[in-house]
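@channel sequence for tomorrow's demo:
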Amino acid sequence: MMQIATVILLILVILSAIIMTVRKFRRGGGCCGEHEAEIKIKRKRIRRKDYPFRMEFRIHGMTCINCAHRVDSALNAIDGIHARVDLNSGKAKIYSQQPPDETLLFSVTAKAGYTAEKL
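structure tokens (generated this afternoon):
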């Protein structure tokens, strides 16, 4: 009787591992979408004189180009903001039409899954 219970438990553990593995491959794995194609960002050209305010801050937690694109997209979704995120330096350069709201920029970065700090 004990052997049957052990075999059933082992089968359940193996089935659970198979199901979780299949789900991971279907959805893409990791925080960065390692099974997805690299995200390409199409940037529109801006006139720097239309964005007179500038700010720069450090972003922690980015490990790949998709991380940087995720933060870049989140910041550029804010009206009046043009952002450039650089993975190598771990920094975001912000160009804005109005004085930038640091709290808003940091909260948007946090919602994207990363932490930001002043330079």
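heads up for whoever presents: The first strand starts at residue 53 and ends at 60.
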